[in-house]
Specification:
Elements (H helix, E strand, L loop, with lengths): L2 H5 L5 H4 L5 H10 L4 H9 L5 H8 L4 H13 L3 E6 L5 E6 L1 H20 L9 H7 L1
Antiparallel strand pairs: 1-2
Helix pairs in contact: 4-5, 4-7
Organism: Paramicrobacterium chengjingii
Protein name: Helix-turn-helix transcriptional regulator
Keywords: DNA-binding, Transcription, Transcription regulation
Amino acid sequence: MTEQTASRPDLPDEEAVGGACPSFVTAMDVIGRRWTGIIIEAIGRDCTGFAEISRFVGHIGDTMLAKRLRELETDGLIERAVVGTRPVRVRYTLTVAGLALLPILEDITSWGHAYGTANEPAHTHDNITAKN
């Protein structure tokens, strides 16, 4: 057994040997895109319209928000529904996969509170070594 599989017994040997688990890489490709986490959080907090999501997210352009919403729909994390009113409205909801991300995003937020700040860089190994 390799050191990598010894530290992660929950990973099958064929996934752990020779690099990162393909499922992990795929997940990080999706949720690692800029704005993705906060868009999912917005929809999870009942911001279901484009303008509501935009206000929640903040500094994002309409073109980028529209692109991310399309990507999240393609990725199966959100659903888009057209409400047949006048004017026509579009509403976004989380799928089961999107809902499953909410507790993970909460954990990332908790980590950010504990180890990251908006004003200071995170403590890296190099920063700690330089101080000693």
